[in-house]
Specification:
By secondary structure, this protein is an alpha+beta fold. Among the domains are: 49 residues, Ubiquitin-associated (UBA) domain (Helicase, Ruva Protein, domain 3), CATH 1.10.8.10; 144 residues, 2-Layer Sandwich (Tetrahydropterin Synthase, Chain A). Helix content is 47%, strand content 20%. The chain has eleven helices and eight strands. A three-stranded antiparallel sheet has the order 1-2-3. The chain has a three-stranded antiparallel sheet with strand order 4-5-8, covered by helices on one side. It has a two-stranded antiparallel ribbon with strand order 6-7. A hairpin with a 5-residue loop joins strand 1 and strand 2. The longest helix is centred in the C-terminal third of the chain and has 19 residues. The protein is flat and about 70 Å long.
Amino acid sequence: MAITASDVNKLRQQTGAGMMDCKNALVEANGDFEAAVDILRKKGQKIAAKRGDNEAREGLIISQATADGKAGVIVTLNCETDFVAKNDGYKNLVQSIVDLALDKLPSSVEELKALPYDAKLSVDEKIIEQVGVIGEKLDLSNYAVVKADKVVAYNHPGNQLATLVGLNSGSDVVEDAGKQVAMQVAAMNPIAINKDGVDARTIEREIEIGKELAIQEGKPAEMAEKIAMGRLNKFFQENTLLSQQFVRDNKLTVEQFLNSTENGLTVLDFKRFSLS
């Protein structure tokens, strides 16, 4: 199939690999982006893949916790241009949807769209109305709710990135710790709370890539499996939240930091939405 410059640039932005490497990988993968990422990794390319981010062009993301801290929501409303996203009226629209979500705590984006916005319109109908007012396509593309003993929200400046973290304790001392972990999630983009939350397909993929790299490095085939498992453990350390080095003190893991705040304190759930 024909590989366009746009395809190559998209893969380059996703992985950080060189332009020609990206083009060759896409050609080899017949345009399959996920397969192209694997090809680049197997060839030893340094990949900074943006796993799990919710792709969008422009818009705003707002996360917020309820007054009692027992729940929180995160909402993404997309638009076509940065000019619209920075408009106060647009910000007010997104905040009004967040306020409604906080009040009703719907379980899905479909349920949120179906909620009454006012006496006349549903949320979905209000968004359609605003398309006519603003003159751009709008899309309520992502929504999530977290419920826990303590939920903490973090909004990165500019509202292009936001996170929610749910903790297993509601004591007074955990608020700041929750904020630190919510910022960790924003900065380090973990794929799961711990290794038990990593899906089997991802694990199989990492083992396969680890074996391939070991063989390319000249290691005996019988050692490749052991080497691959070692690399898998490193993958867990770097990509699962509780095992990551704590950004504020890299002598601690996130799990150790939480335990230093309150014995047994841990993360029950987290969400991360990004426009980039």
